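Appendix B: complex inputs.
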Amino acid sequence: MTTTADIPLIATPTAAKDETPVMTKVANYTNKGMGKYIVWAIAALWTVPTLGLLISSFRPEDDIKTTGWWTWFTEPGNVTIDNYTTVLQDKVAGRPFSEFFWNTLQIAIPGAIIPISVAALAAYALSWMHFKGRDTLSVFIVALMVVPLQMCLIPLLRYLFAASWFPNALSGTPSIWIAHSIFAMPLAIFLLKNFIGALPSEVIEAARVDGASHMSIFVKIVLPLSVPAIASLAIFQFLWVWNDLLVAKVFGGGAANQPMTYALVDMVGNKGNEWQLLTAGAFITMIVPLIVFLSLQRYFVRGLLAGSVKG
Amino acid sequence: MGDIFSSLGLVVVGIAAFAAVIGGLYWLASQLPEPWRERARTVVFLGPGLLLLLGLVLPALINFRLAFYDRNGDWYGFGNYRDIFTSSNNIEVLMNTLWWGILVTGASTVIGVVIARFADRMRGEPIAKAAIFLPTAISMVGAGIIWNFVYSPREYGLLNSMIGLLPGEQDIQFFLQDSKLLGIDNQWIPGLNSLLIMVVIIWIQAGFATVVISAALKGVPDDLVEAAKIDGATDRQAFFRVVLPYIKGTIITVVTTIVIAVLKIFDIIQTMGKGGSFGTSTMANEMYEQAFPQDNEGLGAAWAILLFLAVAPIIYVNARNQRAMRGAR
Amino acid sequence: MSTLTMNNLQKKYPNGFVAVPGLDLHIDDGEFLVLVGPSGCGKSTVLRMVAGLEDISGGDLLIDDTRVNDKGPQERDIAMVFQSYALYPNMTVEGNIAFAMKLRKTDKGQIKQKVAEVAELLELTQVLDRKPGQLSGGQRQRVAMGRAIVREPKLFLMDEPLSNLDAKLRVQTRAEIAKLQRRLGVTTMYVTHDQVEAMTMGDRVAVLRRGVLMQCAAPSTLYESPDNLFVAQFIGSPSMNVVRGVVRSAGEEGIVLEVAGQSLALTGAAAQRMAGLAKYGGQEIAVGIRPEALGGDGEGQITVAVDLVEMLGSEKLVHASIDAVAVRAIDTGVEIGTGTSSTMIASLDPRRDVRVGERLTLSVDTMRVHAFDLQTGAAIGRS
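Resulting structure:
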């Protein structure tokens, strides 16, 4: 039932002729030779929109607005980096676009490291420390994954970040870190507990017999062994924080602390028609996630599987 | 360049402060006599996490209370819930949410399975998979801009130009404002605009499904498939009867993760669906729309509670699945 | 050097399951004690309680006469070798061996020297900078040993350390561990389910069933005078033949047992060591004869029908039917078989010619006949 509606989606431009539903194709093609074409077709389809953005970002303003980016293939020639230089010098809310890049970085790095450190400590406690109600607490934390982020925005703002007792030193960027940490907590604890809890108990016990305290076991044994899970979760969280707009907007205070997504939305709002700037801006926001993703893909995959795959 | 140093400075200070607090507390805990030492150490390990979790628990409770008040802050009982279920507009919102959950999750997972199966051991497998996974790394704002080049009614809109290639005179389509599907205007089925926005999320989520399922497939022991083949199964039968059941747990994980993510999505509807107009709104969007632009916190909170109730059973299934897998190990 | 004492040591789980109802055991300084029993008998639980990895529900655990019930494993000064070896996969062999000393902030030069000594002793010098993943099974086992002995602890605890080795390596390592323990003289508690390991390695062997100590004695004692049916059948391979018999007469002049309708007379010393049978006159008992006590020299005789002959080279195992009901020690007590016949195994001289189907008269070494109470399974001895 779900697949019938997908036909137009998946088979949109390039493979539009074939009306066979995708599922039937899978079922029919036992032949790997055909499967290969399906894979490349989907891969191509998935790349086209981003490719369009990339090409557009190097085209002059007039070209972008008058012709489709695909005409660039038939009539190349007009390539410019003006869009990028303009965007980088452009001012959003009176600040250069480049400043927002650094803002994003300063939000995203601790925004990934802090919650994962906290979650790793908690996951260790929930896996290897003995206390009453441990299992109940674990279930409760998993259940908190249900709480939608949006539901917490107003109460958090009113009773924590904007409350009079909230220390000034933690307002602005640190507030964004804390908010991201709060929202990341259930999933991070859940994933890390799945991994850390599945480490062989005899290794942990051997360390205890060897005289290691909890902190030594955590730092010297558990952390090194959890690198795949931690790395993948860190990438996940980093990408999420990097791409976030809402949390920063609500908790970050003024434009001085805002990330690139904020600047980009501001540009869409104020310069909605200046596509040459938006394409370049969008591409700049994507560069770091792309580099992070492509270089750390391997870890990402391994860690995501922690606890979800047998063996 | 001062920016770099102040940014990095703040990063270093922030992380160092965090590490110092944890280390200091642990040291203090270690100075206590037994049995307090062990308990205090547990608190140091668990405390920061629980503290942060309070940031979810308390707002959830506050929200629960808030849902009983109207936009002026007066007691309204179950009025907000009644309003949601009696307004005819909201049937469309609920149906849209359901369609989002089914179509986006279904399509992403199916694509994940298809790619994972056919790309396995294919030449160029990493490249193909990277291409499909790439959108996962892109922000919603970026995705909105990217897909504008596909759906735009202007000259640079890819979809319109493709339609223009069809024989005969073709009208320019305003895709994102078309709340009908093939001319049918019905609140029980999603509009074309909703479907096209879903495509964007499928585009983003399929990569996640592909990567996870693909890795699970590689974990299936070869001799299992070989045994099935020797028993007379075709490639296809071996895949559907042996391999898929073997990775069932992973698929459940993928499905639940995507469903939860999808049900919470609202930003793409805010940007591409113009805040849920033209019949594109979903529960998460209503929650945002009511609480912020409409300034009716009570109604927004009620939507949040409903969303919570919708996701809860899914989490339960996933938790049980996780436990079953741990049992199998 | 140290002693280990358990006084009424108990383990009860929250769900009400009693793993160890109350164990009394003492290990002398430098002694090698093997704790043996079928799987699920609580032997690992006992070891883990000694290690401090499992809470103690009741009773006392004393190391060197100091009560350590409430001390954590790190405070008990013990070393443990795990069944899976539990090597730290992220550290090199050297790191693994040095870990405990590093935690104790031992002087660096001293660590280096100790690690070198241990590596030399265990022939690990060549692989010191490798990670556990790059080692063979035997090497991993030796690293686990090295990690334990470098500590010079009060107590060695070993939890089935040989079960992951192949048969040949197991035999070799078995001897090496025993030799090493004797040389270092460290008090050792060794857990295994393999009675051959228990017999070959231990100074004393403690046999456990459902958390209850069945007998604790030197290997030869366990073999020659088991306290009960369970120990008799658990120790020895192939295991002791036990069938139902009747005490025909028991008096000054000797004892006559009836097994499978045949009389077996015990006289002189053989009768004296079973004087307790006097109380069982006319009653049914369980009669046990080890395969090795059949077919050599002996005063008694028993006739059986040969079903199967296994030639093992050093001996010939004959499986034969006998018209008597088998008696078996089970988890909850004694089980008397059904039917009228059972299979006996005899270990014969390999040169002796035995054919399947023939009726064979075996001699019985009457000095090695055992008798057990049919209800309690307790051995019936002199009194």
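The two ends of chain B are 53 Å apart (CA to CA).
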